[in-house]
């Protein structure tokens, strides 16, 4: 049977890993796919360097549009990143009748609805396993393995950089800035780490998971995003003392009034599975009504882990090339005409528990006044601890609340901060039991 011809756009970390995995495991991959999968054309910036790596049998050039428009190419693998030129290339590949494999979460989170609609109209596939959680096959698990389930929620550690930073802050007691510098030196964080530490990367991935889990359009612009740059080492220590660890979580939940779609730091119980995911690893919990909780754990980034998912998509597309387009697995798990318009909830409408910390004057009546503000806002206190402050006339209070509505908590915090005996802004971190 004739080989599948692949055009590779980009030969960076993931592109280079894809080439290595395809070359090293060519026979095993062909046995699974039913035919050989060959990279026959590559577009890169450094043409001379690529020719040395790839050898004489692969056509190498600098113009990615030449690859996309080459009639001999069956599948285009887009690994250049970004959401401008990459969007043009992917849409052109689809217009040319070519299948697409991509690891570009930003592209799909922003333009996924347009891209998937174009692919469906043209009868081609867009595969994107590598776009979420690197080598973990979470897309396939939700889209195919959990098809029988009504998904209730998805929660995960889906950014290895932030998980490494939080793990190091906890285990070594170091401040955020120090650990970030170490992460950059080790190559876990970029020179400009904004996408990672401010939660944007995780939100791109969560947006796709929410669409797969609930059959809703891709809506990155509706996600609530909060990063870890303002977390204090003190709160990480206190969380540990209270039986919790702080993780940057992506959380999407189905509720009667809509879908929660949020990325933020959260206290999770130390005994929970996600609390024990350390270093740069990723993990995703999915709860379905039939199966209960399932956990997917592994490397969320890196050359060959991500390449593993890219090649898996190549095999899937190869297997389905001759299938009737109407009978392929839908891009976002649900049939395109069966997508729901369930609204994405504002963060103000989210219900969860809270960790609140602030300094107050050490005087009678303080606790009663604060408790009254919380009670008037419908916020029940689960537990409270007081610890010494550096100032003799000041006390530091930490409250753990029961589940409450975010809007009410925000209003209560504003009232507490206005009390004359409160000497600091309230530190608020959400809590997730993941039960």
Question: Could you characterize what this model shows?
Answer:
The protein has 435 residues and is of the alpha/beta class. The protein has 3 domains: 168 residues, Rossmann fold; 162 residues, Dihydrodipicolinate Reductase, domain 2 (2-Layer Sandwich), CATH 3.30.360.10; 82 residues, ACT domain (Alpha-Beta Plaits), CATH 3.30.70. The protein contains 15 helices and 17 strands. The strands form 2 sheets. Strands 7, 8, 9, 10, 11, 12, 13, 14, 15, 16 and 17 form an 11-stranded mixed β-sheet that branches. Strand 5, helix 6 and strand 6 form a beta-alpha-beta unit. Helix 2 packs parallel to helix 13, helix 6 packs parallel to helix 11 and helix 8 crosses helix 9. 46% of the residues are buried.
């Amino acid at each position: 049977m004739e080989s599948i011809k692949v055009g590779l756009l980009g030969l960076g970390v993931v592109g280079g890993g894809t080439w290595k995995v395809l070359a090293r495991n060519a026979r095993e991959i062909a046995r699974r796919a039913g035919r050989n999968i060959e990279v026959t054309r590559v577009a890169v910036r450094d043409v001379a360097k690529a020719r040395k790596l790839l050898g004489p049998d692969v056509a190498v050039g600098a113009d990615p549009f030449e690859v996309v428009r080459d009639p001999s190419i069956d599948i285009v693998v887009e690994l250049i990143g970004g959401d401008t030129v990459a969007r043009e290339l992917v849409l052109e590949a689809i217009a040319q009748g070519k299948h697409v494999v991509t690891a570009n979460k930003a592209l799909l989170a922003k333009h996924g609805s347009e891209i998937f609609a174009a692919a469906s109209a043209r009868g081609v596939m867009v595969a994107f396993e590598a776009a979420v959680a690197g080598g973990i096959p979470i897309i396939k698990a939700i889209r195919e393995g959990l098809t029988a389930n009504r998904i209730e929620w998805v929660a995960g550690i889906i950014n290895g950089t932030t998980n490494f930073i939080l793990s190091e802050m906890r285990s070594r007691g170091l401040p955020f800035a120090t650990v970030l510098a170490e992460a950059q030196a080790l190559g876990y964080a970029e020179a400009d780490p904004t996408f990672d530490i401010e939660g944007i990367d995780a939100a791109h991935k969560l947006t796709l998971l929410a669409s797969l889990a609930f059959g809703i359009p891709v809506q990155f612009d509706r996600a609530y995003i909060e990063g870890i740059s303002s977390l204090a080492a003190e709160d990480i220590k206190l969380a540990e003392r209270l039986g919790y660890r702080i993780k940057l979580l992506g959380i999407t939940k189905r509720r009667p009034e809509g879908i929660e779609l949020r990325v933020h730091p959260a206290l999770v119980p130390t005994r929970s599975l996600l609390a024990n995911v350390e270093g740069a690893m990723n993990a995703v919990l999915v709860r379905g009504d039939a199966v209960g909780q399932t956990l997917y754990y592994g490397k969320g980034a890196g050359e060959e882990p991500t390449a593993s998912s890219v090649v898996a998509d190549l095999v899937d597309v190869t297997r389905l090339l001759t299938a009737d387009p109407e009978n392929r697995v839908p891009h976002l798990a649900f049939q395109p005409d069966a997508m729901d318009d369930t609204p994405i909830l504002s963060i103000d409408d989210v219900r969860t528990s809270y960790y609140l910390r602030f300094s107050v004057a050490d005087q009678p009546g303080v606790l009663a006044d604060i408790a009254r503000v919380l009670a008037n806002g419908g916020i029940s206190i689960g537990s409270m601890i007081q610890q010494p402050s550096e100032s003799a006339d000041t006390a530091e209070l930490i409250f753990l609340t029961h589940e409450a509505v975010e809007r009410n908590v925000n209003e209560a915090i504003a009232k507490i901060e206005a009390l004359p005996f409160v000497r600091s802004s309230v530190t608020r971190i959400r809590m997730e039991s993941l039960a």
